[in-house]
Amino acid sequence: MMFNMLPRKLRLAVAALLVAVLAAGCATHAYPPAPTTVDTSAYSYVIGPGDTVNIIVWRNPELSMVVPVRPDGKVAAPLVDELVAQGKTSVQLARDLEQVLGKYVRDPVVTVLVTSFVGPYSEQIRVVGAAAKPQALPYKNRMTLLDVMIAVGGLTDFAAGNSATILRTSDQNKQYSVRLRDLIRGGDMSANVDMKPGDILVIPQSYF
Question: 190: buried, middle or exposed (CB in 10 Å: 19+, 13-18, 0-12)?
Answer without folding.
Answer: exposed
